[in-house]
Every structure is written in C-alpha cells, then in structure tokens.
Amino acid sequence: MTVKILTVDDSKTIRMIVKKAFKPFDVELVEAENGVEGLAMADKTKPDLIILDITMPVMTGIEMLAKLKEQDSLKDIPVIMLTAESGKENVMQIVKMGVKDYMVKPFKGEQLIDRASKFLDIRRLDDGPSLDKEYHHILLDGDICVVTPPDKISRGVMLEVDEFFKSKANQKTGVSKLVLDLGKVAKTNVNLIELVVVVIKNAQKEKVHVRVVGSETQAEEFKGFQETSDIPIHPSVAEAKSTF
Amino acid sequence: MNDLQTLDITTCVSNTVVQVFDTMLSMAVEIFPENPPPLPDGLRYVGSVAFAGDATGSVSLEMSDAFARLLTANMLGMETEEIEGTEEIEDVIGELSNMIGGDVKSRFCDRGLPCELSVPSITSGSNFRIEQVGTMHRELIGIGFQEYIAHVQVCIK
C-alpha cells in the first residue's frame, strides 16, 4: 500500500532532498512551507508520517506540533522532527513534545529512510534498485556486473548507482566483480569523479573487485584529480574482464 | 565572554563545515583555519544566521557565484547549466549557513549560554561587505574545494 508522507520545511532544498530520498519507494509525498500550511495539509491528506522542520517563518515546527496534538484526527500521526541544532536542551525539548524521532541536519537520505522505516512499512517500487532505466544500464554476466552510466552524470544517477551497488553487489546475486564502463560518458566533471569514487569505496567495503573502462582522454583527465589519479583505466570491457 | 573564550570556535566550525559538506554534498573540503585565501572578485552570495541570548552574534557563509552554482547543482542533483534564476542558489546557501550556524548555536547552548537562532538571510552582489556591528571577537575560516574557496565568518558580540 502506498504510504503518504508530509514534509513541512521552508527550505526547498530540504524538501527536494526528502523527495529524492523517497523516490525509489512506494511513497506519496506532499509538502508545505510552514506550520500553517502544514496543519492544513495534514488535515486534508491525513498522512502516515510527518517530517517537520523546527525553524520556519509564519508558524514554527514546535507550534505546529502542539496544534497537531490538540486534534484527535491528527494527534497520533508519527512525526520526525528536523533540526539544525544538536544541543542537549533542544533535543530534550523535542523529545518532551512527543515526537517519534528527530534528525539533525546535515543528514543523508538513507538515514531518513531508516528512521521512517521504523514507523512505516516502506516498500521499494520494484524488487531491484530505483534506477531510471532511460539513463542507466546494468548487465549481470555470471559473477561480473557491468555498469554503464549514461552520457550525463547527474547527482541523481550517482545516488542511484550507489543505492543499487549497496543492495545488489555481493549480497543477492553473488557478484564479486564489477566493471564500470565510462565509454558513454561525455564529460569528465566533478560528478563523474564522485561516481567513480563512490563505486570504488563501496566495492572495497563489499569486497568486490572493480575495473574501470574509459578512453585515453578520460585516462589523462583522471590523472588531474587526486581521487582518481592512481586508478588504472582499461581500454575495453573485454580487456577489463580478462584481468580479473 | 569567558565561557566563549574557552570554546575553540575555529575547530568547532571547521569540523561542522567538513561534516556538512561531506554529508550533504559528498565533498571532501580543505579547511584554512586562519588567513584563508581571498574570495575572487565578482558576484558573490552570503548566507547569514544570527544568534541572540547569552551568546550574541552571527555566522555567515560567503562564496563566489561559480562555487554557489556548483554546490546548488550538487545538492539538487542537476547540472550547473540547468540552474535557472537565483532562487535555488539562495535556498541552498541559506540551508548550508543554517546547518553551520545551528551547530555553532548548539555548542554555545551546551556551554550554558542559551541563545536563539534566526532564519537565514541571503545577500548577493559584487560590491558589498558584511559587518557585524559591535563585534568583540571574529573568526574567519576558509573552505577550499578544487579551485573554489568559501569563507565562514563567526562574529560574537
């Protein structure tokens, strides 16, 4: 069953981060920019969970929470509070308000998913990772996984690859080797470097052997980045596989 | 000021900045704890939060337009070319300054100096200077990433 989550935060950035975090899951997201709008949206949509920022204009999160507790139809909705302040007094105040949990900014999307999963049955949209198949292609060849990112590496692609790698590699499929084929990638930029670093870090953690395939130009460009200067670049997928 | 003087603000802010950039942006930044490189000329953004109470002052995060666009694109999962207007940039810079300021405020509160934090304010332009009137103590820290530099300034009255 689709779970409904209401995000109340004046920061569009945070609302987008929450939206991206829940994108792979069977979740309907609604949003509000302050406590007044949040109360109205909560009353209208009766969400299964409210993610609520504290510091907001018009009506703060604490004021909104107090009003939620006054209404029989809303008082039992679990609330995860978001705060930029980790001080003891702030935390004690939040806990006394009766919230289910709180998160201190900065936080990663997967941390939010973990917290929300304690109160809700959040299911993935499909059995595998939430990869946008228009942009990403993964082939399993025995115990070798070939990852072929698209021509444009957005942050969303990077996060999805990270998520896929963590869920699949060496756990469900027995993958112990991975080839990262950068042949389609048009530009060597910060996002590509981060993608390579993310894959290699996860591989080390999951004890998966990695080979990176790229052009001569990419190999030269990688030497200019500290994070990738020591990574050998193989000229083709076939050659990379032969080195395992 | 005595309780504040025993607080190593530079180290606190440096640790917070590293954590914020790593967690929200997956960026490993270099910290310049003193005499940071200057910011480039041209369009800049400054996100500021104020705190008031037993500790009073402000925390601001300042950077060039180019660095701000890079961070915005990174945070929102888009390319820099896809950023239209300034609303998204201002929101990201505001949120980053909110996180850094929030942690600084928490440190003061944990030291028995309760104070409240304002919502972030954003200033942009190419020919301005932000000054906190009546500042008794000021720390300026540099944040480096590739060729980019940002400044975090903590002013305490």
Description:
The complex is a heterodimer of chains A (244) and B (157). Chain A has helices spanning 12-22, 35-45, 61-70, 88-96, 109-117, 155-168, 190-206, 216-223, 237-242, and strands spanning 3-8, 27-32, 49-53, 79-83, 101-104, 137-141, 144-148, 177-181, 209-213, 233-234. Chain A has two domains: 3-117, 3-Layer(aba) Sandwich (Rossmann fold); 137-242, STAS domain (Transcription Regulator spoIIAA, 2-Layer Sandwich), CATH 3.30.750. Mean pLDDT of chain A is 83; it is low at 127-136. The longest helix of chain A has 17 residues, at 190-206. A five-stranded parallel beta sheet of chain A has the order 2-1-3-4-5, sandwiched between helices. With 244 residues, chain A is of the alpha/beta class. In chain A, strand 1 (3-8), helix 1 (12-22) and strand 2 (27-32) form a beta-alpha-beta unit. Chain A is elongated. By secondary structure, chain B is an alpha+beta fold. Chain B has a single domain, classed as CheC-like (Chemotaxis protein chec, 3-Layer(aba) Sandwich), CATH 3.40.1550. Chain B is built from four helices and seven strands; from the N terminus they run H-H-E-E-E-H-H-E-E-E-E. In chain B, strands 1, 2, 3, 4, 5, 6 and 7 form a seven-stranded antiparallel beta sheet that branches. The longest helix of chain B has 24 residues, at 87-110. Chain B is globular, with a radius of gyration of 15 Å. The termini of chain B are close together. The A-B interface holds A 10-14, 16-17, 20, 55-57, 83-90, 105-108, 152, 154-156, 158-159, 190-191, 194, 198 and B 19-20, 23-24, 26, 70, 73-79, 87-88, 91-92, 94-95, 98-99, 101-103, 105-107, 109-110, 114, 117, 119, 146.
Notable characteristics:
heterodimer, A: 244 residues, alpha/beta, Rossmann fold, Transcription Regulator spoIIAA, 2 domains, five-stranded parallel β-sheet, five-stranded mixed β-sheet, 9 helices, 39% helix, elongated, B: 157 residues, alpha+beta, Chemotaxis protein chec, seven-stranded antiparallel β-sheet, 4 helices
